[in-house]
Amino acid sequence: MKKSLSLLLALLLCVLALPAGAEEAEPIVITVGMGVNSSEKYAPGESFDNNAWTKLYEERLGIKLDFVLTADSQYSQKLALTIASGDMPDMWRTDKANFALALEGDMLMDLTDLAEEYLSDQAKEELEPFDASFRAATVGGRLMAIPYTGEAAYGASYTFIRHDWLEALGLEEPTNQQEMVDAMIAFATQDPDGNGVDDTYGLALVRELWGAQYGLEGFFNAYHAYPNIWYEDEEGNLVYGTVQAEPMKAALADLQKLYAAGAIDPEFIVKDSAKVGESVASLKSGAFYGMWWNMSSAICQSFMNDPEKVPDRWWCLSPLSSDSQPAMLQSTGAIPSTFYVVNKNCEHPEKLFEMINLWFEMMSVDVSPEDYATYVVNEEYTPQNYPFVSQIWGKSVRPEQIRGLQDGTLALEDCTSEVQSIWANIQSFESGDYSSSVYFDHYWNHAQLPHHSGYVAEETDAAGAIVNDLNFGPTTETEAARGSTLDQLRDEIIVQIITGEQPVDAFDEFIENWYALGGEDIVREKNEWYATVK
User: What is the C-alpha separation between 390 and 309, in angstroms, rounded?
Assistant: First the structure.
């Protein structure tokens, strides 16, 4: 008995003699690579490698991140050089080109079984709708990366129109593309702002012709033309939308008509998006095409600078068609440009999935107001941009909850913190409080009301009115060698046709040249690749 007591006392003394904290496990160090946004703002004392999220990783997951590979705008180039050296971190973010390089170098861990084992039920549920994104990360039937995820409807190009100009001219809301074209011509020729000066245009257009702001994708889609993307034909083969003659020429004919009527600024060929945005903000443009968030840019700026504070100058319209067939909008939103990958020699690959799980926990559930301000967004900073794992999207802004609040079927306390914050801002705007651009942004982007961009995007998604870009594979050999030349030829002929320098039928010659100068080989290469993944 005495011997047992003596042993127990000796063990107790040993425990008491341990240094403070020795009983706690040391954090696991994970080396990572990621691009750094030098313009990102942090609270005093914080930085990209020391902030609320890095501390959360250590406290909740036992992970200490070591940022061994970082750069701002040169990250892709630095990553390519590092891949060539073979000295890679445990995990890193990568673009599509460097993803292919790492695969070719046999550097990456197969994540298929790990994802099934370590992703939480919540994360799996949130990621389930993003099949197209995960197809881009799958090679030979195996998941080799976790993609940035995106919703197709939020990567489409929508129609934005001056509602106040329609009213001023006694015009109804366009219900088809012909009425839309007529409205744009009226905006340029009938003095919609009533100042007696010929200073308005019907369609704002950027010199690059394409893109998220003031591009032509949405215009072409009204004619069932899908330029610059690859999609399946009736036989299941990939076709390139730019060289489908009939729908492309139908759209070009109306663009030429708009230009001839003075509805397109003749200086569009020298104006970038910033310059075009000035025209929109100064209330001199009647319509444009762009992604759903465009209510947050020049339109919001014009409202905040407008002494009259007209809250509904601009409307977002549901997709319009040039004929009796429903319009479909093309989208690259589901095709990721960035991936998370794991070194095949990493000792703790499960930590990537733990970070993903934590992301969804903090972003997509009803976190406390304190945690929301600390890890998501607050009045000064945007902490959701800080973590190594970000841009893995579920629907943090849940439109079904906004609709429930609007129709009274859902209580505020049953909504996520993100929705509660947005709802407060929507209500502020509806009550006439125009003091913050955030109120305008949240009202026009997230209120589930007709002519609001988020509502139109959700309705488009529900209708299945999306044509996804299926070009999620590697750049082909001929595409790498000839693609930029073919793109230049495309833009040159489109500008020439719009301005009347060339007839619409000149597009047929462009198509012939496109095939002859490498397009035929690109189509063959794309379909050879697609046959291995579909």
Answer: 36
pLDDT tens across 417-447, in order?
A: 788 889 999 999 999 999 999 999 999 999 9
In sequence order, what E strands does 343-398 have? none
Q: How do beta strands 329-331 and 466-468 pair?
A: parallel
Name the DSSP class of 303. H
Angle between helices 177-189 and 245-260 (to 10 degrees): 20
Beta carbons of 264 and 258 less than 8 angstroms apart: yes
Residue pLDDT, tens place only, 189-221:
999 999 999 999 999 999 999 999 999 999 999
For residue 418, how many other CB atoms are within 10 A of its CB?
23
Rounded Cα–Cα distance for residues 494 and 235 (Å): 29
Q: Mean pLDDT over residues 468-493, rounded?
A: 95
Helices (H), 38-111: 52-56, 75-85, 96-104
What burial letters (b/e) apply to 39-78, b meaning 16+ CB within 10 Å?
A: eeebeeebebeebbbbebbeeebebebebebeeeeebeeb
Question: What is the pLDDT averaged over residues 240-248?
Answer: 98
Burial of 149 (0-12, 13-18, 19+ CB in 10 A): buried
Paired tokens of 409? 């079927």
Q: Minimal CA–CA distance to 221: which of 229, 130, 259, 523?
A: 229
Rounded Cα gap, residues 117 and 366, in angstroms: 25
| Residue 5 CB contacts under 8 Å (≥ 6 apart), including other chains | none
Average pLDDT for the chain: 92
Which element (helix H / strand E) includes 468?
Answer: strand 466-468
pLDDT at residue 364, as a whole number: 66
The structure tokens 């800080």 sit at 386
Cα end-to-end distance, the chain, whole Å: 74
Radius of gyration for the alpha carbons in the chain, expressed in angstroms and rounded: 27
Q: What type of residue is 513?
A: N
Q: List the Cα angle 428/462/164 in 5-degree steps.
A: 45
d(CA 316, CA 289) in angstroms, rounded, equals 9
* Confidence tier at 416 by pLDDT (50, 70, 90): confident
The model's pTM: 0.87
- Could you give phi then psi for residue 211, rounded to 5 degrees? 130, 180
Which residues on adjacent β-strands are paired with residue 30?
65
The answer to whether residues 320 and 161 touch, using CB atoms and an 8 Å cutoff, is: no
**C-alpha to C-alpha distance for 424 and 412, rounded to whole angstroms:** 10
